[in-house]
Amino acid sequence: MLKSLWRQTAVRHSLIIFLVLRLFLSGWAMVALQVSPLPEEPNEAIRPYLNQPILNEGAAGLLLGPWQRFDALHYTRIAAEGYAHPEDSVFPPIYPLLIWALGGPFGELLSSPHAAHMATGIFISNAALLGLFILLHKVGSGLLGPEHAPRLLLYFALFPTGFFLFAPYSESLFLLLTLASLWLGFNNRLEWAGLLGLLAALTRLTGWVLIVPLAYQFWRRHLGQGAWKIGPIGGWYPKLYAKAAAVFLPMIGFILFVLYRSLLGLPGLSHIYTEYWFQRTGIPGTDLLRALPGMVGLGTGRAGEFTLWFDFFVTLLLLVTTAWAFFRWQRRLGWGLYAAMLLFFMLLPSSEFKPLYSFSRYALAFFPTFFLLATAGANGKVHRLILYPFIMLYLYFSAQFFVWGWVA
């Protein structure tokens, strides 16, 4: 069985890239922390461990400690305490619930529940990432051609914020569920696509946008005839009703999370984002304008940060490639619709203090962008123009993350 799996190109390429990067990041984290060691004194303002144990000794310190950063600590706190802290309640429950549910075996091996939660979170993310690599290779091979799939995987894995895929963040799980939902939906398996879309929405808030490409696929397959005719071929029948209902599951997932928060007596999401995360819903694209003064060292919003420049560049890249996707795949508009809805949702929040917050990490969800980069990279010069900066920024950003520098 293992030999038959190894013969599959998608599995072989994915496993090699996964193992190389997994081992490299473990060593790179040690190097970064040796070059720039962290102070021994905790400082919740600069290094917010959220009053959880600091893993800095033994095997846990080497393998888990470098990943004990930022959102990872919110997820482990939710796994330990639920939504006891209002600021944690913007994170949907699937990922921390899995950390809590699967933490038992790691708890028997590690000295503290927090270390067990960290190890479980990394295990879940890494297992999901390997599945994501394999699926992305298969989807890319079918959409672009097998000659482009290895390049697609390479660009995706080495995107400058791609190291987050190995971290105890919900990124890898969300992207696996999202890509699987899109792939099944575009292959007319809408019931399963909707179910995975529901799980995606319960993993990350942006999962609800899957309703749009799935609805388009349902219309295209079953309702769209002639110019704009709305009527199923052969009339409605039970299985078609099931497919139609499945289209709405991603939005239902989002609604279930909102209702659950309400039952817990938590303030609304908009209040939490304003109070704790300094973001308000505004006119899409406002943050692009707010970022400009900060990019030249003016204003109060991330003034002078290199990461702001990178987030701004990434936003422009997403705008261009999303528009390009509509022209590139005119008969497969679902990809463009997915990217457009995701970009619209990401551009809605506005912040005077944190414009374009984490855009470079959220860019990992834009599969059409990576499809287009992979086809463009067939040209050797373009390939080097993409790959070399990716590698340099990957090294820089991952090292920054390990020493508690803000990246995304």
Describe the structure.
This protein has 408 residues and is an all-alpha fold. The protein has a domain at 278-376. The chain contains 19 helices and 4 strands. The strands form 2 sheets. Strands 1-2 form a two-stranded antiparallel sheet. A two-stranded antiparallel sheet has the order 3-4. The longest helix has 32 residues, at 113-144. The radius of gyration is 21 Å and the shape is globular. The two termini are 40 Å apart. The model has no long low-confidence stretch (mean pLDDT 94).
| Gross morphology | globular
Which blocks of ≥5 consecutive residues have pLDDT under 50? none
**Structure classification:** mainly alpha
- Main-sheet strand order equals 1-2
Query: How many beta-strand elements?
Result: 4
Span of the ends, CA to CA: 40 Å
Please outline the helices and strands.
Layout: H1 2-7, H2 9-35, H3 58-63, H4 71-81, H5 94-109, H6 113-144, H7 149-157, H8 171-186, H9 190-201, H10 211-223, E1 224-225, E2 229-230, H11 238-247, H12 249-263, H13 269-277, E3 280-281, H14 286-295, H15 306-328, H16 333-347, E4 349-350, H17 359-362, H18 367-376, H19 380-402
Antiparallel strand pairs: 1-2, 3-4
